[in-house]
Amino acid sequence: MKCFSRYLPYIFRPPSAILASSCHAEADIISTVEFNHTGELLATGDKGGRVVIFQREQESKNQPHRRGEYNVYSTFQSHEPEFDYLKSLEIEEKINKIRWLPQQNAAYFLLSTNDKTVKLWKVSERDKRPEGYNLKDEDGRLRDPSMITMLRVPVLRPMDLMVEATPRRVFANAHTYHINSISVNSDYETYMSADDLRINLWNFEITNQSFNIVDIKPANMEELTEVITAAEFHPHHCNTFVYSSSKGTIRLCDMRTSALCDRHAKFFEEPEDPSNRSFFSEIISSISDVKFSHSGRYIMTRDYLTVKVWDLNMENRPIETYQVHDYLRSKLCSLYENDCIFDKFECVWNGSDSVIMTGSYNNFFRMFDRNTKRDVTLEASRENSKPRAILKPRKVCVGGKRRKDEISVDSLDFSKKILHTAWHPSENIIAVAATNNLYIFQDKVN
């Protein structure tokens, strides 16, 4: 960003209301956030299997500053709780990921997945209804043929706008383990779904068959040393994809080399510093998210304490490493005891790949400018979320004297965590999921 100084502190503002339920029910906890390709729509999925889509308001001459506001556009139940009778397993309805398809016509299409089943949804608008059927009355009941004395021409009458969500495809029964990633290919004909040990390639038109492109399951499960944690297609090359592992490694695969990509084309790993080795080293090096840059030149990965940027042409170490919350290094023991050390934080690029964002605890989220190397910590909370309010940078102090505007590392709330974030594809608008609340902030409008 050329004028990043005016964004630091980042001046994003929330809408007039926080777009979520205020009660802290388990089913209301947001589990994924995703803008569509234009940024006009924003979809969230929650643990209750629901998908809520927000639409951006059109700009009006009277209130140009309201352009950034998002209002509820559609809500539908994507997944229901199921039971696998063969394995005696309950399958949660929680939405793990949502991915939009580029818009081809008036309707919108998105993929949503829980642990086992991927669904393709069509979201469309209806503002007209047909009237004047010959064989049916207006309520849809069949008319008595003897009463039909004349031929009527059906007409379309205006009606209140209705948004319908209909499932067009259901891709099921292909994963033994929990699906952690879905990614739409740049050919827009195929997509992949990844679980702990396998990655499958699907055609959008074929629901009963998928092609296994990665299988890291050992012959003897006792020899299992790592699992797949995330996977994504290259934004421009339909033959290339990456997947990350719990060992902190990233593999780049090329589907042109062989049908089963059991051999990677590139292997990205940073050598471990022996002096930093500890009991928690393997846990905190596990990669929770991997994202290609929009240009396709870089890969960003998030592990427990850092965000790293890798150049596709350099495999031995990342070109950039950003400390997200290094002050937690001394707290790893208690974070292990309360299971927070296993939290899976996501990371996201801005539209120009110049700034990256990721979440932390205490409802903090972090932004790093790749050009100026400056960073900022901001907080998503109801207290500082009045409309048009400017977000103030937050600082965490480690020991010693604490300044007035600082917060002690000992007083951080680890139950408040920002795992899921999204950035508008072309503008400075961000969506931050803080447990069961969705915050939308935007660059300051004059």
Automatic annotation (TrEMBL):
<dbReference type="InterPro" id="IPR000009">
    <property type="entry name" value="PP2A_PR55"/>
</dbReference>
<dbReference type="GO" id="GO:0000159">
    <property type="term" value="C:protein phosphatase type 2A complex"/>
</dbReference>
<dbReference type="GO" id="GO:0019888">
    <property type="term" value="F:protein phosphatase regulator activity"/>
</dbReference>
<dbReference type="InterPro" id="IPR036322">
    <property type="entry name" value="WD40_repeat_dom_sf"/>
</dbReference>
<protein>
    <recommendedName>
        <fullName>Serine/threonine-protein phosphatase 2A 55 kDa regulatory subunit B</fullName>
    </recommendedName>
</protein>
<keyword id="KW-0677">Repeat</keyword>
<dbReference type="InterPro" id="IPR015943">
    <property type="entry name" value="WD40/YVTN_repeat-like_dom_sf"/>
</dbReference>
<dbReference type="InterPro" id="IPR001680">
    <property type="entry name" value="WD40_rpt"/>
</dbReference>
<comment type="similarity">
    <text>Belongs to the phosphatase 2A regulatory subunit B family.</text>
</comment>
<dbReference type="InterPro" id="IPR018067">
    <property type="entry name" value="PP2A_PR55_CS"/>
</dbReference>
<keyword id="KW-0853">WD repeat</keyword>
